[in-house]
Write a structure and sequence with these properties.
By secondary structure, the chain is mainly alpha-helical. The chain contains eleven helices and two strands; from the N terminus they run βααααααβααααα. Helix 1 packs across helix 2, helix 1 packs antiparallel against helix 3 and helix 7 packs antiparallel against helix 9. The longest helix is centred in the N-terminal third of the chain and has 29 residues. It is globular and about 65 Å long.
């Protein structure tokens, strides 16, 4: 499927609106904090929480801002429909909790009202992105470029990296109530509310982490299957993983934890290693999924399974048969179509 011109224009406008809203809040935070430095330290967890002004955004907003810009750039590609749908679903899922947590947020009423209006606009725009991506699809014209997912090697690599990263995040999310004060913050950690304080335009930490874990799992399965949605979803998920690793490394460097790595307990060491792993996984996933993949061949393995590019070694139409020149191939006993023409349509060409 391809995307109509009207759907592309609609998607570009909606992405621009979402990007402008995030930019407005980022500018507001930078001005309120007196520069980008305090905002960065708050995001990274290295700021003095008693003196630092609380921003209304987090690194999640920055990743989404990059995703909107990338979505606009991808609207001319064959995967434009998948890009719009994935971007809309991710935005809606991450911003939905703001509809019920902003009302009780410890912020001036005017600021809460602006944040609530922004949330409703974001939810409507993200839902419109999904509609534009679904309703604007049209069959690919003859000879046109078709949307393709990750190649076979890239798909397997993305599956392993994204899947393992999802397990790492899920393990820490399950573990932390037993080793920290966070056990006193449940269920607010996932649904928001007092005494948990959340950035005004962001969702609860547990909700955001759970959404990213779901993204990682869906992208991993889609990547190994070669699904078209796996590339945009995997790239966005990789961006969140990369930001998680970057912020974690900022904390490690700020507090010079790397100098005391040997003296730390096993839990702290594993935490540091998982942050380094996230930095590497996010970078590698973005690199392998950003490359344009060639359409996968429809089956066919070299060696004893047959050397052709068709299903299970069958040769595609127009391919010369095996055997001596000028002689038809000898059919294997008990296999193959009957002499009169066979059953079913011919095997599709690679990538169909």
């Amino acid at each position: 499927m391809t995307l109509t011109r009207g759907a592309r224009i609609t998607g570009a406008v909606l992405c621009a609106v979402l990007a402008l809203l995030i930019t407005a809040w980022l500018v507001r935070d930078i001005r309120a904090a007196g520069g980008p430095g305090p905002v960065w330290h708050y995001w990274a967890g290295t700021a003095d929480l008693q003196d630092a002004p609380r921003p209304t955004t987090s690194a999640t907003s920055l990743v989404l801002l990059v995703a909107y810009a990338a979505a606009v750039a991808a609207l001319r590609s064959a995967s434009a429909a998948s890009v719009l749908i994935v971007t809309g679903v991710v935005t809606f899922g991450l911003r939905l909790p703001s509809t019920w947590i902003i009302a009780d947020a410890p912020a001036p009423e005017e600021l809460r009202d602006r944040a609530l209006i922004t949330t409703y606009v974001v939810l409507v725009a993200s839902a419109a992105l999904i509609v534009a991506g679904v309703a604007g699809r049209r069959p690919v014209p003859q000879g046109g470029e078709r949307p393709v997912g990750p190649g076979r090697g890239a798909g397997v690599a993305a599956f392993l990296l994204l899947g393992f990263q999802a397990l790492v995040l899920a393990a820490w999310e399950i573990r932390q109530p037993f080793v920290s004060y966070l056990s006193e913050l449940y269920p607010e950690w996932f649904i928001g509310g007092k005494p948990l304080t959340i950035s005004l335009t962001e969702g609860p930490p547990g909700w955001v982490t759970g959404t990213i874990i779901l993204m990682l799992l869906v992208a991993a399965v889609g990547a190994v299957a070669g699904a078209a949605h796996a590339r945009p979803l995997g790239l966005i998920a990789g961006g969140f993983v990369l930001s998680y690793g970057v912020l974690g490394m900022a904390r490690i460097i700020h507090y010079e934890m790397y100098e005391r790595f040997i003296d730390l307990d096993i839990e702290a060491q594993l935490n540091m290693l998982s942050l380094v792993f996230s930095l590497l996984v996010g970078s590698v996933v973005i690199l392998i999924l950003a490359r344009k993949a060639a359409p996968r061949a429809s089956g066919g393995l070299p060696g004893p399974w047959g050397g052709g590019a068709g299903p299970w070694g069958a040769q595609p139409p127009g391919h010369p048969p095996y055997g001596a020149p000028g002689q038809p191939p000898a059919p294997a006993p008990g296999f193959g179509p009957p002499p009169g023409g066979g059953f079913g349509p011919p095997p599709p060409p690679p990538g169909r």
